[in-house]
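note to self: the first set is below, dont mix up w the second
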Amino acid sequence: MVGAYRVVIQNKKIKFDFEIRRNITILRGDSATGKTTLVEMIREYEELGPDSGIELQCEKDCVVLSGRQWKKQLADLSQSIVFIDEGNAFTASKEFAAAIQKTDNYYVLVTREGLETLPYSVTEIYGIRTSKHFGDLKQTYNEFFRIYGKPMGLEKLKPTAIITEDSNSGFQFFQAVCAENGIFCESAGGKSNIFKMLSDRAGENVLVVADGAAFGSQMERIMQLLALQPDSHIYLPESFEWLILRSGLLEDAEVDEILKSPENYVESQQYFSWERYFTAVLMQKTADSYLKYTKSKLNPVYLQEHEKKAVLSEMSRIQLDKKDI
């Protein structure tokens, strides 16, 4: 499934209006914020249709997945937006991650915990709030709000150490840039290791660079840690490949269009995360050029002055190259 889909569901008392644009969306929040109410309304409409007193507007079928028979239910679903309420422990299992990886559905998961087995984006973690625009209506109007993804401050960051999630081409790029500029750089070898490595460098001016497209499960505890380590920061591009695509090095009109609205191009059945899609696009677009890209080993051309500066320019609020001082 590709594309962004607006979901509007309402009865006489309450209305939800939101948009789903990736294969995995996380819905969080404390009790009594409306998460379970939303799922229950979708369940009622699924069972009773208009007789439920609920109106549902969406281009795709909206369904609820739950209980011990979830695998059987899932096998019958296609081109649907699937809602799963908290309390369904299977969402944290490797079995569930494997089961949904090759499906053509979108999933909205209600959970208070990070789901380590799923590669969801930091920008697709939402809470529910009552919209101020409809505060005078008797019907309560609810919308999603993004929990993470706030921009950095206006001042440039000048880290003395960098921790990368990546251990492949992305790490090799930052390692080389840091070596030129007297900045310590190490790879975490995976997102689950970043918390400890960042904790070990408390008091230092550390910058974490990770793939925002799949880092969602780590965000809560990392943000809590950053609150205790104010000199540390985190930079979350979609992926290193996304940085290269945005740099303008390819001078490709199709790439420019993809970057404007990736949701209209990323087929969820083929790509479990946008990071994988951007890697595939970059490899395809550079296959027959001097910029040929591979995930495992960085093409040295990206460390040439022009190419290096083009990539670093996308990190506009981070200063790694002392030549730019």
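second set (the one i keep forgetting abt)
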Amino acid sequence: MRPVGRPLRWGLVAVGTLVLAAGCGQGYGGQGDDGRYDGGPGEQQTGAESDLPQSSEPADLDPADLTTEIDNEYWPMEPGTQWVYRETDEEGQELRVVVTVTSETNKLANGVTARVVRDTVTQDGEVVEDTFDWYAQDSDGTIWYLGEDTAEFDDGRVTTTAGSFEAGKDGALAGVIMPAEPAVGMAYRQEYLKGEAEDNGEVLSLDEQAEVPAGHYDRALLTKDTITIEPDVLEYKLYAPGVGPVLALGISGGGGREELVEVRTVSEETTRAAGVTPLGERY
């Protein structure tokens, strides 16, 4: 699973929620005869070609070509940046999601050194899920997702670590979380571990609007996220330039609404602690 980009944790929301929750510069389209998003009025589906990985295709990453300094316009990850999200189901139950770019790095099985990003989920003040996610950016500006160390908790005890994987280990492959130069119709694998993590993304638009507690954002990038091994799952996510993920909406197969409440810079002490404090513990 992925931060903000990971599947939402609540039940279904109505499809109409998308239109109400996030305004659209051109108007939302639908599926054409070929099953692809048509981009809506005034925006044509390009079917953009790319060399980004699909499904189980190998990703020949050169560790020397990747960096932990991540400055992609749609998700800049400066150490010390912290995003706070509110995740709500249709009955009003809430989770608090805090994502922190730490000062720590981790050399992975595929030889790539990745930035460690902490994703902590709480309900009523108690940790219910905690994750170290690993990212790196190539010289073109594409952000690669290289795995995660994750755990779910109940009353302070680990209930499962399912979803953990590391690129280059046990057949797990790196995926793309944000292309360097996204274009409408561009599709890519986000993560791959056969039978465990088979997530995909597709760029639907580059000119959306999103209204969330943190503010109003223009020129947002809209993606459609699916899971090969869970074909009923469909989510839309919006990324604001210079900010990162601002809104995620589950449409089918489980979901909810996860919206940005605040983005801030935390202290050096917190930035380091977020990267070294064991999962499930306060930092």
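remember for set 2: The first strand starts at residue 66 and ends at 67.
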